[in-house]
Structure formats: C-alpha cells, structure tokens
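Tokens for chain A. Residues wanted.
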C-alpha cells in the first residue's frame, strides 16, 4: 500500500461544551461542564474537591457562549466542507436532548438542532462521528443521584441513548460512548459528575463510577447494534505512551504500571472484563466493585467495535522519588510527567513527541487488535492576528505534519488498521484543561478573547489551506 485508503476519514473534532455555547437556549438544561469556572477554582471543581453545582457571580464561565457554534454551525460546517473534511467528530449535549437527564419527553428543539447539524454535514459529504457523552453529566442527575457513583445513572444514560439512536439512526454511523473514559480517575467531576464529601473514600467512589460507565457503555453498544445494525461504536481514551526515565528495571516497571493504569478501562471495553491485575490492585486499595453476574454478562456482550483515542504527548516516569519530585504537570494539571530531555515543549508545557504517536498506535493495536481511530491530536498555541487580518501559524503546521508523518508510518509500514484522523479543534474553542480561549488549536480563528470580548468573526489561518491540501492529496502532500 502506497497511500492511505480512499475511504480514510480525514477531519476535525470538537466537543459541544467547548464550542457550542447557547448553554441556556433552546430548552437546554444545566450540565456539569457549565459550572466549571475559569481561573484558580477550575481544577478543584473539575477534580471533585470543590463542590459547585450552580453558577455564581464570583466566577467566569467561558463555555456559556464558547465560540457560539450553536448560532454559527452552518457557517462553521461550510468552512469544514471547504477544507475538505470527510469526517466531523462532535458531541451531543445530553441536556439539550433531555434537560433533566432522564425526562420522559425529549426536548424537540434540541433534537431538531442536531438534525440540522447532521444535515449540514451530509450536505458537504462529511460523515458525523458522535460522542454520546463528552464530559457531560446533567446537573439534575448529579443532584438526584450524586452523578455516576449511583447505578441508576446507567438507565438514565440508556434512555438518552435510545432517544438519539432512534432519532439519528439514518444520519450517524459512527458513535463513541464516552470521551476519554480514563480521565474520570483524574477529573471525576468532569468525567462523571462526582464530587467528594468529607469522610468519603475518593478511590472507592471513582472506581464505582467508572464501573457504572463501563456497564452503561456495554449496554449502549448492544442497543446501538440493535437499532442500527450497520453502525460502529467505539471507546475513547486519553492516550500517550509512558517511557521509563532510565533503563533501570524499576523505571521500566513504573512505566509499565502507568500504562496499565491508563488502559484498564479500555481493557474492559474491548475484552468485556477487568484485567486480573486491576482487580488485585483495587483489592489492595480496599476498593470493592459491585460487579454483578448481570454486569459481567452485559460487559461481555457489549464490547466495542474500534478503539479511538486522543494523543497530544508521550509521558515519562520513574521509580526514583527524587526524579518524581521534579516532574511537571505539563501545563494541564492532569498527567504529571518527568521532563524528557529529548523533546521540545509547546507554549503550555506539553512535550512534543511525534514518534510517540506511532509508538502509542502500535501499543494499542498490539494490545487490542481492533481498528484504531485518532480522534484528537493538535497543538494549543497563542496565535497573532496580523494588521492585514492574516494568521500565520507555521508552528501548528509543523506539529501536525510531523504527527501525520508518523501516523503514515504506522499505517503504511507497520500495517495498522486506522479508520481516520480528526485533529482536535479545527475551529478555536475553549480549552477543557485551562478554560482559556487564547490556547488556540484551530485552522479557523474565532475573535473571542479570554475576557469574553470579541466579535466571534471567523478567519482562516495558514494551516487551513495547508490541511485542505493534505486532505485533497489523501495525506501525500504535507509540504
């Protein structure tokens, strides 16, 4: 094979809560992502250590308007069509469909909105790839059940899935059950609507919530195949290979254990059961999961069709406490990493490792033997608008070029089955990690600033024209 398959799905990826806006319009209910503020309280809330279930006047919430795709979607999808997208990965906002999360009657205005979005995509020959739950738990269900720590969330999620599967069965073929499901263990309020009260065992709550999401995912896969026999349903993880800091066997073991921690929820979604080491690890931590015989049956019957993942950087770890004492959060306050002296860094401290993408892809395929789909990969940077209105972003082009080159090697030289590549943030959006607008990923610049000011005007960056050329040549022309 000399090039990518002709049906390779080139495109871009967004999340409703980071680009859509219109958080209180069209009958939409409040979700966990709406109450996570910008500023110093962002991570305490996202991690469940600070309880916040409403918005207040003391904080800013950039996602409330975001880049207002809710009112600009026709313009934005037209621009995606101009680039030549074959695929647009997006999410449905749960509370736009079921404002309280488990309503008996869905919100027709919300259903009609996504009908129109999908119609616009098909108008330009763009295949939607829909994330059912992208860091999105209805506040009403958090108040009612405490989020995903309660098993009743499974039925609420399945009710939501039944509505959207039946409504969009003729418009959407590719689905993802949960975004970056492993992030639940790092940002439990974002990932599962979970916060911790004094005296509670956070580890028990996180793993219980994860189990409920795994059961819900398996049931959703089965339901999707019943309603849409030709559909494909995937899982999704925040990926990035861990390297040992040295060849000391203890460092090698530390890296292996870190990878295991990152993968074990995906292990369950692919194989339909927990790996034995994960069960022992939970046992040692005093965590007891109520995994019923019915759960085990459901998980076996609802394994995913493909494995999708985000990749921004590799990570490095060590068994040496002195080395770990100097590790960095890499600008995102989630995955700590020891500095790798062989890698450069982005403006936000994320280490740039294109070869790590190929390594990660091979690790995932060796482990799962399922088709892969890269559904996030991109560079957050502070772009400058020139006096003539142009935006020159050679750093973004260089980052994407280097990663696509390694992706090509994984497909063409290593033979890995890859369904597609949807880079993260084809249009500027609110950063999930920091809540900033100035951390821009897009090919399309949006005039919106950290302080909320801006006209929301869209502008094409240099990378827009570069990616258009990449897609038109099916990955052959990367210059």
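Reply:
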């Amino acid at each position: 094979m000399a090039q990518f398959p002709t049906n390779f799905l080139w495109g871009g990826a967004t999340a409703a809560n980071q680009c859509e806006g219109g958080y209180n319009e069209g009958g939409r209910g409040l979700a966990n992502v709406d109450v996570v503020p910008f500023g110093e309280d962002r991570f305490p809330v996202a991690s469940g250590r600070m309880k916040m279930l409403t918005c207040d006047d003391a904080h800013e919430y950039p996602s409330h308007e975001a880049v207002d795709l809710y009112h600009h979607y026709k313009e934005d999808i037209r621009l995606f069509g101009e680039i030549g997208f074959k695929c647009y990965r997006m999410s449905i906002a749960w509370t736009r469909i079921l404002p309280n999360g488990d309503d008996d009657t869905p919100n027709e205005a919300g259903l009609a909105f996504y009908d129109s979005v999908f119609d616009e995509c098909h108008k330009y020959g763009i295949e939607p790839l829909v994330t059912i739950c992208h860091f999105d738990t209805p506040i009403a269900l958090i108040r009612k059940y405490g989020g995903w720590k309660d098993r009743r969330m499974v039925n609420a999620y399945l009710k939501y899935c039944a509505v959207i599967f039946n409504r969009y069965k003729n418009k959407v073929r590719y689905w993802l059950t949960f975004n970056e499901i492993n992030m639940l263990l790092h940002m439990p309020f974002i990932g599962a609507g979970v916060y911790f009260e004094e005296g509670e065992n956070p580890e028990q709550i996180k793993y219980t919530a994860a189990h409920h999401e795994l059961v819900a995912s398996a049931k959703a896969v089965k339901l999707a195949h019943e309603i849409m026999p030709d559909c494909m349903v995937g899982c999704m993880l925040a990926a990035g290979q861990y390297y040992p800091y040295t060849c000391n066997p203890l460092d090698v073991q530390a890296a292996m254990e870190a990878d295991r921690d990152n993968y074990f929820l995906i292990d369950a979604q692919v194989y339909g059961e927990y790996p034995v080491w994960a069960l022992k690890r939970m046992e040692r931590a005093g965590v007891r999961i109520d995994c019923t015989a019915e759960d085990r049956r459901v998980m076996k019957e609802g394994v995913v069709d493909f494995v999708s993942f985000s990749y921004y950087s590799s990570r490095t770890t060590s068994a040496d406490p002195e080395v770990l004492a100097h590790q960095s959060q890499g600008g995102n306050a989630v995955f700590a990493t020891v500095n790798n002296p062989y890698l450069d860094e982005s403006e936000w401290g994320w280490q740039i490792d294109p070869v790590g993408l190929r390594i990660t892809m091979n690790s995932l395929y060796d482990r799962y033997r399922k088709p892969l789909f890269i559904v996030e990969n991109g560079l957050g940077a502070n772009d400058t608008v020139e006096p003539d209105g142009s935006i020159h972003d050679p750093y973004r082009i260089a980052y994407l070029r280097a990663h696509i080159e390694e992706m090509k090697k994984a497909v063409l030289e290593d033979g890995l089955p890859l369904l597609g590549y949807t880079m993260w943030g084809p249009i500027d959006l609110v950063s999930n990690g920091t809540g900033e607008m100035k951390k821009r990923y897009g090919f399309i610049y949006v005039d919106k600033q950290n302080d909320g000011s801006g006209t929301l005007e869209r502008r094409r960056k240099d990378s827009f024209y570069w990616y258009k050329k990449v897609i038109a040549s099916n990955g052959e022309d990367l210059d």
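Residues 202-227 form the longest helix (26 residues). The radius of gyration is 21 Å.
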